[in-house]
Amino acid sequence: MTNLAIAANGLRKSYGDKVVLDGIDLTVPVGTIFSLLGPNGAGKTTAVQILSTLIPADGGEVQVAGFDLARKPDDVRGAIGVTGQYSAVDKLLTGEENLLLMADLKHLSRGDGKRRAAELLDRFDLVDAARKPAATYSGGMQRRLDLAMTLVGDPRLIFLDEPTTGLDPRSRRSMWQIVRELVASGVTIFLTTQYLEEADELADRIALLDHGRLIAEGTAEELKRRIPGGHIELTFADAHLLDAAHHLLGAGITDPEALTLQVPSDGGVPAIRELLNLLDERSIDIAEMNVHTPDLDDVFLTLTGQQKVEATR
Amino acid sequence: MSTLSLAMRDNSTMIRRQLKRLLRYPSMTVQLVATPVIILIVFVYVFGGTLGEGLGGGGRDAYVNYVVPGILLMAVATAATGTAVMVASDMTEGIIARFRTMRISRASVLTGHVVGSVIQQLLGMAAVIGIAFALGFRPNATAVEWLAAAGLLTLFVVAVTWLAVALGLRSPTPEAASNAPMPLILLPFLGSGFVPTDSMPTVLRWFAEYQPFTPVMETVRGLLLGTPIGNSGAIATAWCAGVAVISYLWAKNIFNKA
């Protein structure tokens, strides 16, 4: 069995009558990126707050970084780092002072603290802004400083709660690059996001959270495979060609008005080549072709849609 | 390192954080000195001549001496508002959530606020006393009496500041926090701060004599100017120590629960 950075069993939390987490199970192996994906209000932030010792759970057995969350919260705190969706930097202090503050709180020696701060300022491209108050930083810079502060103590497990929400595409890409480098160095990442693209790009495993329940879990590929809907859409110049193609392939759905034929397919190159060769042999010309592969959007919409239908029954 | 020395290190880290923040935000400190100085000038030059005669003669010169302890306590009460606001707005920042997820002494966050504010206020008080000198304040205290007065005032500042921190933590917003310590500003007036309590109507006099600010003002006045202290010193110390301990426990409790 591999070592687990997080092992949660039946994690529950409610505020009054409102059930926020309805008994969720999580297993996150060391050195991987795990993404908790869900719409706003699904309970992602609550899950991070519980796992990072900010608020207590109502029930469930949880081990974080090898320590029991309820009994040894201080040992958990020693092993984790948290970067939330609202920047956790002291805006009145400069970037450098914020990093040195973290170094002091992690009980590094003065020399080590200074070295670590300098190293992180350099790595996160904050050297020029090091002596300016964090209040003057752009959103992307504050988020980078935030993550740099989390890294001061070399945490083994890092919680990133919607790390790129509100960032421009460029800052988002640079954040992704940083996350990949961290995992390459052996750190475990627990990432929450509402962006399917982000989970797809980064995560080894993805769990879909909706209304406090995990509705699906697996790799991005596994999740996509659960959803039908991959197809190739062929458009023809006239109805004659459309019928010929439909007859030849013996499958698919035709739309005589739009002159299109939807052929079920995984959208892979061999499948496309085979299809085109077949049509070519019979000299059936294609006016236009579109390949639609299922993405996490399809997965997400399908699964959360089903959930909602069940709930209203 | 032991748990205790780690906690001490966290305390000193948080105190340095708070002092840096106060330096970055000097308008708060300026206001801390300006407000009591303006009240002092108004009371000495506007009301001082008449009030001084009521003290048993001496006019404005006698009144400067009488009013300074009350002004000092009012300065502390004013500063409490600032501290409560600062704590309440700090609590809305993500950095506090970060501190909570770190293996540090939790009380150090609050201790940083208290020690920072106390240092700020003691410096502010020294400035107010300096300006009072320029306006004619002439204490006749010995070095030991000055030290005793400084000691009691420090204890008082610590007590009021812990109370302000607790009030700030309890407030849902920084705006609400600015109202919570308001009644404290009235206490020097409803005590022996600006006029002797025996000139007040019975009910008010009863309140004025038994509320905590009066023994502190009486003791400071006695130490600096030689008026009789009686048992005020012991009562003042007991009040300050009691308020400090209860407020500390209250603040810590609120912070740990949130």
UniProtKB/TrEMBL annotation, chain A:
InterPro entries per the UniProt record, alphabetical: AAA+_ATPase (IPR003593), ABC_transporter-like_ATP-bd (IPR003439), ABC_transporter-like_CS (IPR017871), ABC_transporter_ATP-binding (IPR050763), DrrA (IPR005894), P-loop_NTPase (IPR027417)
Superkingdom of origin: Bacteria
ABC transporter domain sequence ranges: 6-236
Segments crossing the lipid bilayer: none
Keyword rRNA-binding attributed: no
GO MF annotation terms: ATP binding; ATP hydrolysis activity
GO CC terms of this entry: plasma membrane
Primary residence: membrane
Any single biological process term in GO: doxorubicin transport
Keyword match Amino-acid biosynthesis: no
UniProt keyword list: Antibiotic resistance, ATP-binding, Cell membrane, Membrane, Nucleotide-binding, Translocase, Transport
Record's subcellular location: Cell membrane
Its membrane topology: Peripheral membrane protein
Assigned protein family: Belongs to the ABC transporter superfamily. Drug exporter-1 (DrugE1) (TC 3.A.1.105) family.
Protein name: Daunorubicin resistance protein DrrA family ABC transporter ATP-binding protein
Species this protein is from: Nonomuraea glycinis
Lineage: Bacteria, Bacillati, Actinomycetota, Actinomycetes, Streptosporangiales
Automatic annotation (TrEMBL), chain B:
Keywords: Antibiotic resistance, Cell membrane, Membrane, Transmembrane, Transmembrane helix, Transport
Keyword Transport belongs to the record: yes
Predominant location category: membrane
Compartments, as annotated in UniProt: Cell membrane; Membrane
Membrane topology recorded in Swiss-Prot or TrEMBL: Multi-pass membrane protein
A Pfam cross-reference name: ABC2_membrane
GO MF annotations, alphabetized: ABC-type transporter activity
Cellular component terms per the entry's GO annotation: ATP-binding cassette (ABC) transporter complex
TM ranges: 22-46, 66-88, 109-134, 146-169, 176-195, 233-251
All residue ranges annotated as the ABC transmembrane type-2 domain in the record: 27-258
InterPro entries for this protein: ABC2_TM (IPR013525), ABC2_TM_bact-type (IPR047817), ABC_2_transport (IPR000412), Nod_factor_ABC_transporter (IPR051784)
GO biological process: response to antibiotic
Family: Belongs to the ABC-2 integral membrane protein family.
Protein name stated in the entry: Transport permease protein
